[in-house]
Structure formats: C-alpha cells, structure tokens
Amino acid sequence: MKALVGSSFTIQATRKKPMQIVLKDFRDHFETERLIVRAPRSGDGLAVHAARIETHTQLRDWPVVMPWAQTEPLLEESEAYCRRGQAAFLARTDLPMLAFLKADQTFAGCISLQRMDWEVPRFEIGYWLRTSQQKKGLALEAVNGITLFALQELCALRVEIHCSAANHASRNVAERAGFTLEGILHNHKRLVNGRIVDSCIYARLA
C-alpha cells in the first residue's frame, strides 16, 4: 500500500486485488455431436470403475501420463476420484470431466483441463477412452470440444497436450485437432520399468 501525502491529509492508494480463482463462474458441462461432457459427481465411481477395469491393461502401458493406472483399480478408488474431482472442479484447481454418449448415457472416458495457470490463462488437456469406445473418433471429438470450452468459456490463450513420443494415437489426435508440435523433450521421463522415453509438447493458441 502506498501513501500519497497532501497538504492536510494522507490518501491511501490501494492496488486492486486479483479475483480469487474459486469465484470464477463458468459452466461445468458442454456437448459435442455425440457426447455430453460434464464435471464428475458423487456416484459416478461405478461407471468410471467399470471403464477402468475394461481398459486397465492398455492404460498401464502409458505410465508417463497415467501413473495411477499402474495398480489394479478398486471401486472405492474410482468413487474417491469422482468426489475429489467434483471438489477440485468447484475449487478451480483442476477441471476433470467425464464423457458420456448421448445415445445411451454410456460412460466413454475422461477428459480434463489440468496443470493450469489462470494468470495466462493456460491449460493442459489430459484424456483417456475406455477400450470399447476407441477407434470411433470420440477422442478427437472430445479434444476438440474441451479445446473450444477452454478457448471460449475460460478465455484461454494457450492449450497444451503432452504425450509420449511413442504414443502415436495421442499424437495423431493432437495434430488432427489443430495442435502444433512445439518440441520433443528427449530423455524426459523414466517409466516404471526403468526405460527412458521422450515427451512431445503440442499447443494450440487463441
């Protein structure tokens, strides 16, 4: 606080405080052609758990971005994930979202905005689809949807996708969604099996 001294009084000039992130108002859902994407809720754990069981072996292959998938999933862990996700979304510290098929409400997978910097604003996208919903174009649809959500709803200036250089499926989604490969970080991550891998950084700007 800085004091401005006049002839007979002192004026205290105050700097405007930045808005608390938790007070930011925006929608907790959006829709695409085939998907309803929304913040998690209590009770979503059963659907998430079934998808994790179905996809466990596949998710385990990418410990760079999914270290939580290295152990056998438990129902209570999936429910705890949903409840923590609901709290994080409200606190604006993480923005996890669940994707459901419009046709029959089947849970298709998770897509999130994470590791954000609200001062920019900048967000990183993370996602996975259950095995039975892959190779249908849903990953690209979800990524396009959440990218527009970040750019339009959250006024993002930068949206990123990080993935292993060997994860060609994720790299293809990023490139088809209009993200630019800004660099490859060599010898960037060590897997649980000890192998060192490279990481790709993709970005899309406002």
Q: Your description of this structure?
A:
- The structure is a single chain.
- With 206 residues, the protein is an alpha+beta fold.
- The protein has a domain at 27-161: Gcn5-related N-acetyltransferase (GNAT) (Aminopeptidase, 3-Layer(aba) Sandwich), CATH 3.40.630.30.
- Helix content is 28%, strand content 33%.
- The protein has helices at 45-60, 75-91, 138-153, 168-176; strands at residues 2-5, 10-13, 29-31, 35-38, 95-101, 107-117, 122-129, 158-164, 180-190, 196-205.
- The strands form 2 sheets. Strands 3-4-5-6-7-8-10-9 form an 8-stranded mixed beta sheet, sandwiched between helices. It has a two-stranded antiparallel sheet with strand order 1-2.
- Helix 1 (45-60) crosses helix 2.
- The radius of gyration is 20 Å and the shape is globular.
- The two termini are 35 Å apart.
- The model is unreliable at 1-13 (pLDDT under 50).
